[in-house]
Specification:
This protein is of the alpha+beta class. It has one helix spanning 72-92; strands at residues 10-13, 20-29, 34-42, 54-56, 61-66. It starts with 9 loop residues before the first strand and ends with a helix.
Amino acid sequence: MKDLLPIGSVVLLKDATKKLMIIGILQVKPDEEKIYDYLGVPYPEGYIGANNNFLFSHEDINDVIFKGYENAERKTFMDAMKIIYDKQQENKQ
């Protein structure tokens, strides 16, 4: 699993002019059955409706403007997510 940015991080995507703030990680778009690394909302506006949420992956990021808060609780969560992610990858093979 990739080293994902924490919630609250602000990024600028490639070929974009508007910054996004990350509000979710490892998000699934049901109609595509694809897992995206992040769910973001426009910064500084934040959540302004479901039509203004953006799914993207780490490789889409051009610049990390601000890195969000990290602590032991996040580390525990990420360790658990890695186990789930690894099991899903095994099942696909």
